[in-house]
Amino acid sequence: MGSRCGPGANLLLAVLGLLGGCAAVGPAYEPESLALPEAYDAPLPALFQADESADPWWQRFDDPLLARLVEQGLTQNLDLQTAASRVREARAAAQGAGAQGELNLGGQVQRQENSQPTGDAARSTTSAGLDLTALWDLDLFGRQQRTREAALAALARERALEREVTRITAAEIARGYVTLRAGERQLALTRESAALQRQTLALVEQRSAAGLAPELDLIRARAAVATLEATLGPLRAQVRQQRNGLAILLGQHPGALPLKMPPVVAIPAAATGAAIPAPAEAIRRRPDVQAAEFRIVAAVAEVGVATADLYPRLSLQGSLGAAFLSTGGADVVQSTLASVGLLVDMPLLDGGTRRAAVTQAEERVMQAALTYRGTVLAALGEVESALLAHAGASEQQAGLEQAVADNRRAFAQSRELYVQGLLGFISVLDSQRQLTASLQQLAQAELARSLSVIDVFTAVGGSPAPPRPAPALAE
């Protein structure tokens, strides 16, 4: 339909005026309201009652190598790079979501030569055209608005998931490093125990050569040395496996981690503490909880998109064209054509398909809300479990420290009594085995305690983060 100005322009202004008075259909997002406990059920150890600090939690271990590895991993980890790529993908999708119109420009040029049978000079014809087309969707019921809201919520969710991968990656690197150092510590303890057992074997050999000890004592002493040395191979293999696992977390190939590290004197432990936030604040910090909430925001917006499909869709379509024709000389014929139209897409009968789509979208909101609640409960459970594990490991470590001290004294006394001929070798062997076992158990308890500290800091969302804004819908 062609038109110049007048009634068509007036109709366009009237329709555009309607746009300002229409609101987007569908529900508006309302934040989930959950009753959270004011305090944790598990007791808070003194380590987690200190003043809060803005420093990353891994720096509290006072281990420069640990801090360096975590920071390196946060730039090189492949999962983090993948998460960053997903954020860029979601950002690109959000930039094009909810677009209401488009403007296109096209043109063409054609030249034709016509030869004359009478021998006259050939005549040439040159034609050119230029077309400008526009399409604008009148978002009377907010379909484009809701589409953009859903896309922006999806972008916010991907950003939260990127922070979640950061939280998990930092914890995995720290756990891998502490586990590696604990493996090295166990290997060193086993070597020390084997060296001590060889000293005992030398003592038994001297007493056996002097006829002061039976051959049975010598056989038992040799078996004890062989048993300890047999455990060195698996421990060395385990340490290498832990190194390879840590290298992969850092985005490197197995074996890339330097084999020589500063000698481990003790398993890394938190040198200073930090206060952990109350349950509500801990939940607010958790990126996985934030991602679950943004999933609700996107689902609510998609209900609006489905609801808008129940209403008519109006679009303005216009075009402006210009044509130029030159025949032979410089004569130019010029023509222009302008048109504007109103397209209406009104659902009349679809067998309930659109209404069913709204119901499906509403159910997805319910599913997202249930997932959010489950994520919150799981997050609280992680904090409680980590606190209980820390309390248990701390008690175990204190008891084993006393056991190691007692076993050292028992071994020293049994060895002295054996040299004096007042005690049989089996008692010496038993006391040394108990000392070796308690040393290994203490190392395991120290590892469990350090891992529980990592788990506590990770469960409460990692390092303190700036306040998270409400699920905003602006880029």
Output the keywords.
10 helices; alpha+beta; disordered C terminus; Outer membrane efflux proteins (OEP); 475 residues; 59% helix; four-stranded antiparallel β-sheet
Can you characterise this structure?
Residues 1-21 and 464-475 have low confidence and may be disordered. The protein has one domain (34-106, 125-459): Outer membrane efflux proteins (OEP), CATH 1.20.1600. The two termini are 39 Å apart. With 475 residues, it is α+β, with helices and mostly antiparallel strands. Strands 1-2-3-4 form a four-stranded antiparallel β-sheet. The chain is elongated. The longest helix has 67 residues, at 143-209. Strand 3 (313-327) and strand 4 form a beta hairpin. Helix 4 runs antiparallel to helix 5 (215-230) and helix 8 runs antiparallel to helix 9 (353-419). It has helices at 7-21, 64-76, 78-96, 143-209, 215-230, 232-249, 279-285, 287-308, 353-419, 425-459; strands at residues 101-114, 123-138, 313-327, 332-345. It contains ten helices and four strands.
Mean pLDDT: 83
The CATH topology turns out to be: Outer membrane efflux proteins (OEP)
Percent range of helical residues: 55-70%
CATH architecture: Up-down Bundle
Low-confidence stretches: 1-21, 464-475
Count of helical regions: 10
- The ordered string of helix (H) and strand (E) elements is HHHEEHHHHHEEHH
Q: Roughly how many Å apart are the termini? A: 39 Å
Strand content: 5-15%
How does the overall form come out from the CA principal axes?
A: elongated
Kindly name the structural category: alpha+beta
Supply the number of structural domains: 1
**The top level CATH class name:** Mainly Alpha
The CATH superfamily is Outer membrane efflux proteins (OEP)
Rg calculated over all Cα atoms: 38 Å
Please tally the β strands and state the result: 4
Sketch the major β-sheet. Answer: 4 strands, antiparallel
Spatial sequence of strands, sheet with the most strands: 1-2-3-4
